Amino acid sequence: MSVSLARISCHEVRLAPPRICRRAVLNIRHNSNTPVSEAEQQNLTWPEYLEIRKSKRKWETAATIPACILGLVGGLAYFGSLESDATKPIMGIDPLFFYGGCTVSCMGLGYLIGPTIGAAGWRMTHRRAMNLIEAKDRRFHQHIVKNRVDPTAQSATNPCRISMVREKIGSLHQYRQWLRDQARFRRKARFAEE
């Protein structure tokens, strides 16, 4: 049974333990002799979807750390082996500082590439359910866009928190809290104008 995010209350949904959510990506009953309909196989509930998103973020973070370390080590190996003359600046900068900056830039490049590598690895392990996850992702984005407040109505006394909200929502409780925050901002913005 799929739960609509628009009509959810605190008592309607109970989150299943993570081990159940990981196994229930396609809601297939493996130990049952009863046939499973195509509609049941193609159903991904909101708690399962949010648990899947959380696992994707963990994969991205787990890939970012080694990518940063590899970028730093690669930069140290390459720029540390270059011979430089301290009397000849590179683009007006001392060679030691320039090569140090390039080494840190290699680490930053690893930081930027790491989440992409993690997401690609995660997608390879979840190939069977990607259509379901992408459809639910589009639907989740539509819910966020529909319920998001207008940031042009913010002021110094009434700031709104909108940045990166899709990445921060990891459970139905956080989604409900975000909806309450959006409603509170709308009320404050509307009553401040009147």
From TrEMBL:
<keyword id="KW-0472">Membrane</keyword>
<keyword id="KW-0809">Transit peptide</keyword>
<protein>
    <recommendedName>
        <fullName>Presequence translocated-associated motor subunit PAM17</fullName>
    </recommendedName>
</protein>
<keyword id="KW-0496">Mitochondrion</keyword>
<dbReference type="Pfam" id="PF08566">
    <property type="entry name" value="Pam17"/>
</dbReference>
<feature type="transmembrane region" description="Helical">
    <location>
        <begin position="96"/>
        <end position="122"/>
    </location>
</feature>
<feature type="transmembrane region" description="Helical">
    <location>
        <begin position="62"/>
        <end position="81"/>
    </location>
</feature>
<comment type="similarity">
    <text>Belongs to the PAM17 family.</text>
</comment>
<keyword id="KW-0811">Translocation</keyword>
<dbReference type="GO" id="GO:0001405">
    <property type="term" value="C:PAM complex, Tim23 associated import motor"/>
</dbReference>
<dbReference type="GO" id="GO:0030150">
    <property type="term" value="P:protein import into mitochondrial matrix"/>
</dbReference>
<keyword id="KW-0812">Transmembrane</keyword>
<dbReference type="InterPro" id="IPR013875">
    <property type="entry name" value="Pam17"/>
</dbReference>
<comment type="subunit">
    <text>Component of the PAM complex.</text>
</comment>
<keyword id="KW-1133">Transmembrane helix</keyword>
<keyword id="KW-0653">Protein transport</keyword>
<keyword id="KW-0999">Mitochondrion inner membrane</keyword>
<comment type="function">
    <text>Component of the PAM complex, a complex required for the translocation of transit peptide-containing proteins from the inner membrane into the mitochondrial matrix in an ATP-dependent manner.</text>
</comment>
<keyword id="KW-0813">Transport</keyword>
